[in-house]
Design brief:
Layout lengths: L2 H21 L11 H16 L11 E2 L6 E2 L1 H4 L2 H7 L3 H26 L4 H13 L2 H8 L4 H16 L3 H12 L5 H20 L1 H14 L1 H7 L2 H10 L2 H7 L3 H18 L3 H5 L20 H14 L4 H10 L20 H16 L4 H30 L8 H11 L3 E3 L6 H8 L3 H7 L22 E3 L13 E5 L5 H6 L3 E7 L5 E7 L2 H6 L6 H4 L2
Parallel strand pairs: 3-4, 3-5
Antiparallel strand pairs: 1-2, 5-7, 6-7
Helix pairs in contact: 1-5, 1-6, 2-4, 2-22, 4-5, 5-6, 5-7, 5-8, 6-19, 8-9, 9-10, 9-11, 10-11, 10-18, 17-19, 18-19, 21-22
Length: 537
């Protein structure tokens, strides 16, 4: 079998496996749709229909949504799938799942460049490792923007290796438009690359790469100076809190340094990378960490090689060093999503260790070892992704709102939806509300789109309002009151004559969301001293 045919076969295997774990039951694992996903999907739908987002802003660089001001590049990758498949959970997740598959292919190609003497085996091992990587699979199956940013960075890295300065500069720059932490990490990477690889890459090519990067960063830099995007940064970071508590500038420096390096070093802790799931249950798979526990063995072997004699150790160390740079500034003590760039160098270290151990195994045993490892990983992955995730974490993904909204519409009664999250966007998404109508409700003009930082539930229609329940007035109107199980207790329902009208349940029968119908006549009749709301009727 010639080299070209072997390469094609290896990439085909990687594409097949990566596609299976990223596309199978794509609309059911995770089960439900989170507001962060829906806001991207609906705004892509709005762009498709009107060329503007939900606020009437044409082609945003940062998506305002509900005050998040996230980089908007990933949004534009949604338009075509929604055009083809319609507005659904599958169409929302399709583009980033596809990008996740392409990431595995490009990673395999990168491994082939790094290990030219074992090109085919390196491509196979590298591609399979990221194809079944737990963290990357989850991020690819929901609308997290980080897989797009990782993919663009990885393509820029391959172009860097091929000495293609213009393409490398473009892809590295585009990566910062896809996910907010990359606006820090990629800048640091580029500075480090210029210092470490100027002679090897060629000073003229480094200059071209840097110019391309800087020129294409002008819109990013310009819009980052507006209050909206900059406020987002200060809302996420622990810096204001330490600044408030510090008694002097010297104490601020001390406390900030201690906090930063404490969080920064946590991202290199094998316990967090191989055993402990991300503390945010929406950003991890049940009972699985970033990598599989068994991979700690090959990781330590690869780390030893990196320290002693790796040809590419400068590159590995550089990406490792910058990966948690932005994430360590945020309030989360460990967030693999915000430090997702670390998946690339850590995976490369795992590849290095795996290749070293496989080189000590006879060829006859090689296939058996790979098969056993694959079966072990697939067993853990299947249980976590397709059994535990949909059955244990459905509430994290707001499952049940589609059924709830369908009932509220069919009832014909006015309704209040009470939630601690902006679930109005789920209503817009599931019901495919006309973007022109939504834009007409917005009080944000294009001139203050990036400047106005305050946000409130603005959406309503003739029947459904999204707001907190007011017990002094809302129970005295004939309407439906909807929310989760914490909204109305059994005692409150009895006291205020609220009758259960709808319950959204899991297949197991567990209740998730409720809708109660008020009975203001009975409520007022039960009062000896009439409330003001009853007297006004």
């Amino acid at each position: 079998m010639n080299f070209k045919l072997k390469t094609t076969l290896v990439l085909s295997i990687i594409i097949l496996i990566a596609s299976i774990v990223r596309f199978w039951h794509l609309d059911k694992a995770p089960l439900g749709l989170y507001v962060d996903d829906a806001v991207q999907g609906y705004n892509a739908y709005s762009l498709l229909k009107t060329g503007k987002d939900e606020y009437g802003q044409p082609l945003p660089v940062f998506l305002r949504s509900y005050g998040a001001f996230t980089p908007a590049l990933a949004l534009y990758f949604l338009v075509l799938p929604i055009k083809i498949f319609g507005l659904s959970i599958f169409s929302l997740r399709f583009s980033l799942s596809l990008i996740g598959v392409l990431f595995c292919v490009v990673f395999a190609i990168l491994c082939g460049y790094l290990y030219p003497g074992k090109k085919i085996l390196a491509m196979l091992v590298g591609g399979l490792i990221v194809a079944i990587l737990p963290a990357h699979i989850l991020f690819s199956r929901a609308f997290f923007e980080s897989p797009l940013s990782l993919f663009l960075f990885l393509v820029g890295l391959v172009c860097f290796f091929r000495r293609w300065p213009i393409r490398s500069g473009l892809f590295l720059s585009f990566s910062t438009y896809a996910y907010h932490t990359q606006r820090v990490n990629i800048y640091l990477f580029l500075i480090g690359a210029v210092i470490l690889f100027a002679k090897e890459f060629g000073r003229r090519k480094i200059l071209v790469l840097s110019l391309v990067f800087i020129i294409t960063q002008i819109p990013n830099i310009y819009f980052s100076t507006f209050p909206g995007p900059s406020t987002r940064f200060f809302n996420l970071t622990w810096i204001p809190q330490i600044a408030t508590n510090a008694d002097s500038p010297l104490q601020f420096v001390y406390l900030s340094s201690r906090e930063y390096f404490s969080q920064y070093l946590a991202y290199y802790n094998p316990y967090y990378l191989f055993w402990l799931p991300d503390p945010d249950t929406q950003r991890s798979l049940p009972e699985l960490s970033v990598f599989y526990p068994w991979q700690i063995v090959v990781y330590l072997v690869g780390l030893g090689i990196l320290i002693r004699k790796s040809k590419h150790r400068k590159l590995y160390w550089l990406i490792l060093a910058v990966s948690p740079a932005a994430a360590a500034l945020t309030k989360d003590p460990f967030s693999v999503l915000r430090a997702s760039l670390i998946l690339i160098p850590t995976s490369l270290i795992v590849v290095s260790g795996t290749l070293t151990l496989l080189s000590k195994i006879t060829q006859k045993k090689l296939i058996l070892v790979l098969v056993l490892i694959a079966l072990l990983s697939f067993g853990q992955l299947y249980r976590s992704l397709f059994i535990l995730l949909p059955n244990e974490r459905y509430s994290d993904w707001l499952y049940g709102y589609n059924e709830l909204f369908s009932f509220l519409i069919k009832s014909g009664l006015p309704a209040i939806v009470d939630a601690d999250k902006p679930v109005y966007i789920l209503y817009l998404y599931y019901q495919k509300i006309d973007p022109l109508y939504v834009q007409s409700l917005s009080k944000i003009s294009p001139s203050n789109y990036y400047s106005q930082t305050e946000w409130a539930d603005y959406y309503h229609d003739n029947n459904i309002t999204f707001k907190r329940l007011d017990w002094k007035t809302d129970i005295y109107k004939r309407q439906l009151i909807a929310g989760n199980s914490l909204l109305v207790s059994t005692a409150q329902a009895k006291e205020h004559f609220l009758k259960p009208a709808f319950i959204a349940r899991l297949l197991s029968g567990e209740p998730l969301l409720f809708a109660y119908q008020t009975d203001p006549v009975s409520k007022c009749a039960s009062q000896i001293v009439k409330s003001e709301a009853c007297l006004l009727k």
